[in-house]
Amino acid sequence: MKSSLEELEKELKIRNINISYQRLKVLECLTLNHCHPTVDQIFTALHKDIPTLSKTTVYNTLRILVDAGMVRVITIEEHETRYDIDMENHGHFKCESCGMIYDFSIDIDLLTCDELSNFEVNDQNVYFKGICPGCLSNINQNK
């Protein structure tokens, strides 16, 4: 997704979402930072420029963007919700050492499970956890 404010505004209009400065800035934050941020991270990043911003506004904006299909929820950890602007099918790897989440290519549509043939699947996610190359390198250097 392109990140100019004008183009983000067009995307919101196409989806009949009322445009506000706060909504545009949350969407822009997601397009510029592909780090799968939490609400707290988005709030902290934007609060400097928008001192009147509340976490409730960030939560509500993200809910609207998720409902509109512009953002997806990432829940690799049970008690941690993150947000991803990339709506294309892909998987996520979370480093258990540094906490970074990395995207990787995978054709999720090719994953089939005969046991679910009579089920309606509404969401598909592929999550892996482990240690990223940077942390592995640090671990090996400290041995």
Could you describe the 3D structure shown?
The protein has 143 residues and is α+β, with helices and mostly antiparallel strands. Helix content is 37%, strand content 17%. The strands form 2 sheets. It has a 3-stranded mixed sheet with strand order 4-3-5, with no helix packed on it. Strands 1-2 form a two-stranded antiparallel sheet. Strand 1 and strand 2 form a beta hairpin. The chain is globular. The relative contact order is 0.12.
Using brief descriptors, characterize the structure shown.
alpha+beta; 143 residues; Dna Ligase, domain 1; 5 helices; 3-stranded mixed sheet; two-stranded antiparallel sheet; 2 domains; 5 strands; globular; Arc Repressor Mutant, subunit A
Can you give me a brief rundown of this structure?
This protein has about 140 residues and is α+β, with helices and mostly antiparallel strands. It folds into two domains: about 5-85, Winged helix-like DNA-binding domain superfamily/Winged helix DNA-binding domain (Arc Repressor Mutant, subunit A, Orthogonal Bundle); about 90-140, 2-Layer Sandwich (Dna Ligase, domain 1).
